[in-house]
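pinging the channel bc i need a second pair of eyes. not urgent but kinda urgent?? the chain im working w is below, pasted from the shared doc
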Amino acid sequence: MTVTGLTQEIKKDFRPQNLKEDGKNVYKTHQVSELDILQALEFSGIRIFKFNLGQFDKKYAFYIFTDEYLDGKITKTDTLVAYSNEYHYYQVGSEDYFLDYIDQIKIFTKEEENKLNLKICTYAMSTDKELTYDKTNDDQFYNLRRYINTAWKPDKKISLLVFASSWEDKKHGFQRFCGSAELQENDKGTKELLSSSPHYFLISYKAVPEDNE
């Protein structure tokens, strides 16, 4: 009786990490760019926004708000975050921690039926919130627009994001959404968008000196 056996050679795997994790290269990661990933996320209703706050000079009470507007008037204000602009961190290899001030806000958004989910992050905290709304007709839709000048000013609300509804083009009978893709205070395109949209949420932040609390 003859027995035939097979032996496997042990050989160091020098393939790139992506091929180790996807051995048959199903996802073709060498062909996928960061833009592709962001577009796929947006297709799933997910977007990522980062806002530069500039450099703080001292500790402030730190708030993030949402103001809901209907026909150009505020109908509701909610405080999404009540914290401070301070955070602590550890240096690598040290058990001592140090303090500094945040310099950015990161907001993840996910659009679902009649709802916008928010995940708001700074170096110091993260929180999940949601905005809900009702459409006035089946054709109405909502869009997100970001502000580009978001550096802090003491005791002043700084706009970050707008989640705004489309509006009816009465002449042609369809829903329209136009205006600047990136918003700025006192900008013509921004004013056009906000004055035309019958319903929108404005997300903003405010750094308040602690002696003003």
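so The helical segments are 17-21, 34-43, 188-196. and The two ends are 91 Å apart (CA to CA). — does that match what u expected or am i reading it wrong
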